[in-house]
Amino acid sequence: MKSLVTVFGAAAITLASANAALSARTDLVIGVVLEPPHLDPTAGAAGAIDEILYANVFEGLTRIGPNGEVLPGLAESWEVSEDGKVYTFKLRAGVKFHDGTTFDAEDVKFSLDRARAEDSVNAQKVLFSAIDTVEVVDPLTVKVTLKRPQGSFLYNMGWGDAVIVAPESAETNKEKPVGTGPFRFDRWARGASVTLVRNPDYWGEPAALEKAEFRFVPDAAAAVPALLSGDVQAFPNFPASDALEQIKADPRFAVVIGSTEGETILAMNNAKAPFDNLKVRQAISHAIDREEIILGASNGLGQPIGSHFSPANEAYEDLTGLYPHDAEKAKQLLAEAGLADGFSATIKLPPTTYARVGGEIVTSQLAEVDIKLEIIPMEWAQWLEQVFTNKDFDLTIISHTEPNDIDIYGRDGYYFGYNNPEFKTVMAELDATVDPEKRNELYRKAQRIIAEDAVNAFLFQLPKVGVWDAKLVGMWENSPIQANDLTKVRWTD
Amino acid sequence: MASYVTKRLSIGLVTLLLASVVVFAVLEILPGDPARIMLGMNASPETVATLRQEMGLDQPAPLRYLDWLGGLVTGDLGRSYTYSTPVIELVRERLAVSLPLALISLFLSTAVAIPVGVFAASRSGKLSDTIAMGTAQIGIALPNFWLALLLVYVFAVGLQWLPSGGFPGWSNPLQAIKALILPAISLALPQAAILARVTRSAMIETLGEDFIRTARAKGLPRRKVLWRHALRNAMIPVLTILGLQFSFLLAGTIIIENVFYLPGLGRLIFQAINQRDLIVVEGVVILLVASVILINLVVDICYALVDPRLRTGR
Q1: Which residues form the domain of A122?
Q2: Which residues pair with B92 in a beta bridge?
Q3: In the record, which residues are listed under signal peptide (chain A) (predicted)?
Q4: In chain A, what residues touch B96 (CB-CB under 8 Å)?
């Protein structure tokens, strides 16, 4: 009799949990501001592509986890040779692309060779620059030989631009992406939404959501009613930060402030007078008041930074105290530079809110030390051409959203015109170092060099403002890469 | 009548050719490289050059213009740089939203404006006229995006009768129509306000004419005179405004499409300009120019229908 009760009890519990599983929602509408131009992460820089497809549809050899850590992806393990030049990846068995073709070492070779080919239009071709050869050892083993040791190689392989594609579908991924991930591409209603559905044949733990629709909501004013009416249940990057207080007060929603990889800087043209003078750059760094800028340009949510490095990274060093806000000191430095009466310059601003608002605040702060700025607002295309490509600018405000991108300070011909052999040596050393502790030490050294050189005025880390239904769990708090990984997202009751 | 139409048609074609030169030249001057926009800040100049070549942007401008014009003549608008899809296909998708939206708005605004205008004219100077025209004045002053947000908060957030935005596609016609109701109202009301005022003033002018007095004198009922005789003669300015409004509704809905995040033609142009997808901008603009010319042609023919004097060119 007792055992009978147990059996019934167990059956009841099973039924109850089955019911709970049935009643929980399995569909989700996610609001995103920008529509991707196409759906191939290996053929464009637009963050909007990765925001939909990375980790959901496409996977790489490695993957970047919620805190920026490197995790196994399609490679379940790897070995690195003594000299740090040979990486042998052991691939997962039984993985299939969404079109039914089998994933194996040939696909890895194809993807990596395609990305680094002469005629490749991969936006992050530099990620593959260290690769010398890619060899197929057996169907589940790939050997990648590098020209030189590269400490960031495993991290690089986790980028959206390094995902593995199949030769059969590579050419059509822009329209109809075919990957190996837990979600399959279902449809793209251009201008309106991209819909993904669960991949029942996924090699790993299947996703809890059956259907995920990314809906394009370009207008900040439209995002609030979309959320309040329940039409959209999650905004990983909520565009209407003015309305945040109202939403915080509403128990139906969770507001989660995290960090991004976006270092927001007041960039200076180091190749052009008077910004080629260290004292002038230091003066500007002293003249600005970060707190005020953060309050105005990011609703007080951004974290202050003193160098070009994310505070979320374990190698981060707090250098915000190096040039404290001090107008007198700034004036004195300007006088030492022979500019006691100040000077005039322009500040070119891209269309984002942080740049436009930040630019106005910076202009008023610099006016206090007799640096008179003329604000020139421009749209994104113009900014890319004039400032970034032609280097025709004095000052600008921009957020560098690529993860771990301090190496841009070592690039020749980069737009802010910094050239320091010492920094380049550190970058070369970093490239050749695999040991995590030593790498962190080098990262700290690099941060110090550019902070002391006051290459740019470092303002704040762009916050990630996530707003979603309070019953939703598994959304990422931070964005170590531009992605909305939905693999662990589910509804609770 | 035939020669009238032929004349109008050839003027239209010349306008179209001139417009194609202007559109191409203006976009040529616009700063910004589509290849750099696609590849972003981390791509090397070599990669950008490769993509430019792939897009055919390394060719000289006059050559690209002739190429494009040749395509236009054969009905080929080229391929979008960013979407790598034929432009005509993109336009077709967007017209499935913009055209119904424009037609519904036009219908709504006409259905409201003309009766109100006629009514106000017939009671010119009385209190009801003042109230009607005062309301219309507010309607003109009201920015349509503000009206749109107000409607969204009332009908989508508050009452939850209609969606707050987005477009589900025509596979579900009921949902599709529901998605277009609020945008159509937001577009129609300000237009209706203008149209009502034009109708009223045209009617008042016509009602003062001799033939109206004659019609009344021979014993026709007031209502009949108003709707049959006066309205038909007051139609010319009304048709002019309607023609202008339709062009506006087709192309000028960028703001409303943004507020309701509808995938219409306005959004397509806006996105294409931002991404410097020039071939899309060129294609859409030239199609819009063509449609404006066509609408004007239709309006001209309508003039001729309502006013026989125009047919013979007297």
Answers
A1: 58-168
A2: none
A3: 1-20
A4: none
Asked if pLDDT for residue A10 goes beyond 50, the answer is no
| ipTM (interface predicted TM) | 0.75
Residue A157 lies in a domain: yes
The CA-based angle B104-B110-B113, given to 5 degrees, is 135
Residue at A129 is within a domain: yes
Same domain, A238 and A224: yes
Torsion of CA A452, A453, A457, A461, to 10 degrees: -60
| Structural domain contains residue A343 | yes
Q: Which residues of chain B have pLDDT under 70?
A: 1, 251-252, 310-314
**Minimal Cα distance from B157: which residue of A?**
A229
Q: Are residues A221 and A297 in the same domain?
A: no
Best CA proximity match to A223, nearest among A212, A237, A202? A237
Length in residues, chain A: 493
Domains detected in chain B? 2-74 (no CATH), 87-312 (1.10.3720.10)
Same domain, A338 and A275: yes
A11 in a structural domain: no
Say if residue A274 is preceded by a cis peptide, omega within 30 of 0. Answer: yes
Cα–Cα separations (whole angstroms), residue B151 to A34, A484, B139, B141: 24, 32, 14, 17
pLDDT tens, position by position, A105-127: 999 999 999 999 888 888 888 88
A335, A236: one domain: no
Query: What three-state secondary structure class fits A141?
Result: strand
- Residues from chain A that touch B159, judged by Cβ atoms under 8 A, are none
Cβ A218–B84 below 8 Å, yes or no?
no
In contact, A260 and A464? CB cutoff 8 Å: yes
Q: Do A123 and B40 touch (CB under 8 A)?
A: yes
The Cα–Cα gap between A71 and A143 comes to 19
Pair (A348, A201) in one structural domain: no
Inter-residue contact A30 to A209 (CB < 8 Å): no
Best of B82, B261, B273 to mutate (most A CBs within 10 Å, chain A):
B261
A268, β-bridge pairs = A395
Based on the domain organization, do A251 and A341 belong to the same domain? no
The domain total for chain A is: 3
How is residue B268 written in tokens?
A: 């397509």
Q: What is the dihedral of CA A477, A480, A484, A490, to 10 degrees?
A: -40
Picking from B264, B267, B274, the nearest residue to A380 by CB comes out as B274
CATH of the domain at A161: 3.90.76.10
The Cα of A94 is separated from the nearest Cα of chain B by a number of Å equal to 33
Question: What stretches of A174-244 adopt beta strand conformation (E)?
Answer: 183-189, 193-198, 211-216, 234-235
Let me know whether A274 and A361 are in one domain.
yes
Same domain, A120 and A189: no
Give pLDDT tens digits for A218-260: 888 889 989 998 899 999 999 887 888 889 999 999 999 988 8
Domain boundary among A168, A203, A225: A168
User: Which of B66, B64, B70 has its CA nearest to residue B52?
Assistant: B64
